[in-house]
Structures are given as C-alpha cells and as structure tokens.
Specification:
Structural class: mainly alpha
Number of helices: 16
Number of strands: 0
Distance between the termini: 110 Å
Oligomer: single chain
Helix content: over 70%
C-alpha cells in the first residue's frame, strides 16, 4: 500500500515537473523570439537609415524642388544652389511661354518652330540634374511606402529612420509628384491658359507648377501610396506628441488635424484596399484617430449640441469653454466606424493627388490689387 502511494506521489511530481519544464520552454521561446524581433528591427532600421543617408545630396535637391527658394532659409540649402535652380526654372519658363507669342503671330515658319523646339529641349536638359535627384527620392519613398503599407516595414522603424526629416516638408512633398495642368488634354486652350498664368506669377510659384510628375511619369497609385505613407508618419508623430498642439494663428487648426479630412481618409482607404480590406480599415482608423486627437487641442471644436447648451444658459458669449477632450473623445470614438464607411464611399470619386489647382482657381485665391 505504501509502495503504491509513493508511486502515485512520484507520478504527480513528475507531471508537475513536466508542466514546469514545458512552461519554461515556452517562455524561453517567447523571450528568444522577442529578442530576434528586436534584432531584426534594429537591422531593418540600420538598413533604412543607411539607404536614406546615401540619398542626402538628392534629398537636399528634392527639398529645394518641393519647397522652393525658401528651403535655403528653412533647411540649410546653399543659397548658390537655390539661385542656380531659379535660373534654370526661369529659362524653362521663357522657353515655354514663347509658344504664346507664336499664337499671336499671323504666320510662323518652320525655322521658328525648330528654334522653339530646340529652346524647350535645351531648357529641359538644364533641369535634368534636378530630375535625377527628385526621381531617386520619389523612387525610394515609393519602395518604403510599399513595404509599410504591406506590413513588411513597421511605421515605427520608418519614422525613426527618416520620418522627422520628411515631416518637416510634409505639406510640400506632393509638389514632387504633381502633374502639370491639363497635361492630358488634347485641346491647346487649357495649356495656353496655364502658360499665360506663368507670365504673371513669380518664378517661385512657376517652379511649383511645372509638373515634376510629368517628367518622372509617376502613376496615380504610386502617388497615393506615398501620400498615405506621409500621413501615417504624421499620425504616428501626433500620437507621440511631436506634432501639435501649437497653433500658428487664430484662423488655422492645430497641426495634424488635416488627417481627419474626408478626402485624406478616402485616399487612405484606396491605398489600403489595394492590399487588403483589413489594412484599409486600419489606415483610415489610424488617420481619423490622430486627426481628431489633434483637433481636440482646439477648445472651439465642440459638437453643435454643446454650443446649444452653452447658449441656452447664456454662458458661451462670456465664458470660454474648457478643453473638450472629456466630451469630444468618446464622441470621436463612437463616430469612427462612420468615418470609415464615409471614406470607403468617398474613395470612388476622390480627386487625383497629382492634379494641380487650375489657373482659374489660382487666380481667384490671389489677393485683390
């Protein structure tokens, strides 16, 4: 009897020991996998940072092209390089605008046309060095954005590698992929209107409208992918608190609040849907959450019913409402599925991110003389 009890006791201890060894083995595997994941992330970060550092000279040119001459003051681009760029743009403008002079003439011979063509080719070739630099940057951003949107590269690693540099010029980066106005139109009228605008506006503005996307032949899908990638970096920066809540003036919204606009969400849905439905939902939710978080930094943004209550009690005119996080945050969370549905619906007719503002709209925004 005692022997049987001892065997049973030994069996219990053996089972407990096996369970303990199994638990230790599983925990060891988890620790090893986490260590491997950290090493893999560190290696990925090193590769991305090295690749981005190798493009430093091209990035300097790309900043000049995207931002304009002000890049020399804001981002340390040499003044001489900025002057050379403006001179090249001035030559390109003069060569293109000469076409309007031909239209005004009664007749133009073949010699004049050949001279015009040679002038355009010469002016375009002077921009070739800028083309190459912009193409290198756009190609790299297209590759990194593709890896990020497909889940091969985490947004955290991308942000640590070069996100801060990109976010400094995030509002100007679309200039690298935009097409010239009416570039696909067979009618000469829109092109003539654009060239007439070039005559009137400063050379710095012409530099933003020459259509770098035409030279690079950037596809719409690529442009949308890069746009969403920049927005995801911005959203991550908002979550970290590295963007906002400072406001530049009383008219503007806090930085990052533009992420919650319906068109931005629609573009994110389109880019994510090309990968999977789940990623489309995740991208839209991430941008909507970050954009609404940035908007909550402005105490004026309340639901309409809150202002109605303030007015009813006569408090709104004489009493500033408090920060609205405790009211707006739950409401934003409840409305997030609605934002996702609206973004999916809007994505069917969202505007092409490569399109320029038309000359008519551009003139309408100019200050009255």
């Amino acid at each position: 009897m005692r022997r049987e009890l001892k065997l049973e006791d030994m069996g219990d201890w053996a089972g407990a020991a096996v369970a303990l060894v199994g638990a230790v083995f599983v925990w060891t595997q988890v620790v090893v996998q986490r260590g491997q994941h950290r090493l893999q992330e560190a290696e990925t970060h090193r590769q991305q940072a090295t690749a981005w550092a190798a493009l430093s000279e091209h990035w300097e040119v790309a900043q000049l092209v995207a931002v304009g001459p002000s890049a020399a003051r804001w981002f340390g681009v040499p003044e001489e390089k900025s002057s050379d760029y403006l001179a090249a743009i001035e030559e390109f403008r003069a060569a293109r605008v000469e076409f309007l002079e031909f239209i005004e003439l009664d007749s133009v011979n073949d010699y004049d046309w050949d001279k015009y063509d040679k002038g355009v080719i010469s002016a375009t070739s002077r921009l070739s060095s800028y083309h190459r630099s912009v193409q290198r940057i756009v190609t790299h951003l297209a590759q990194v954005s593709s890896l990020t949107l497909r889940g091969r590269l985490s947004i955290e690693v991308a942000y640590d590698a070069f996100g801060i540099e990109l976010l400094r010029v995030r509002k100007h980066l679309p200039n690298l992929v935009r097409e010239g106005y009416a570039v696909r139109s067979s009618c000469p009228g829109p092109l003539n209107t654009e060239l007439a605008l070039w005559r009137e506006i400063p050379i710095e503005e012409v530099a933003k409208r020459i259509g770098w996307g035409n030279f690079l032949e950037v596809a719409r899908v690529t442009a949308e992918r890069i746009t969403v990638f920049i927005d995801l970096l911005t959203a991550y920066a908002v979550e970290l608190g590295e963007i906002g809540p400072e406001m530049q003036n009383h008219e503007s919204l806090p930085p990052g609040s533009e992420l919650a606009s319906l068109d931005r969400l629609a573009i994110a849905w389109s880019a994510g849907r090309r990968v999977s439905l789940g990623r489309a939902v995740r991208f839209v939710a991430a941008l909507d959450r970050a954009g609404k978080k940035a908007r909550r930094a402005d105490s004026r943004i309340y639901p309409d019913w809150v202002f109605t209550i303030f007015l009813r009690f006569g408090r709104y005119a004489s009493w500033a409402p408090p920060r609205n996080g405790f009211i707006r945050a739950p409401w934003d969370m409840l409305m997030r599925p609605v934002s996702i549905i609206r973004a999916a619906w809007r994505s069917r007719r969202v505007a092409d991110v490569r399109h320029l503002v038309s000359p008519y709209e551009y003139r309408a925004k100019l200050p009255a003389e």
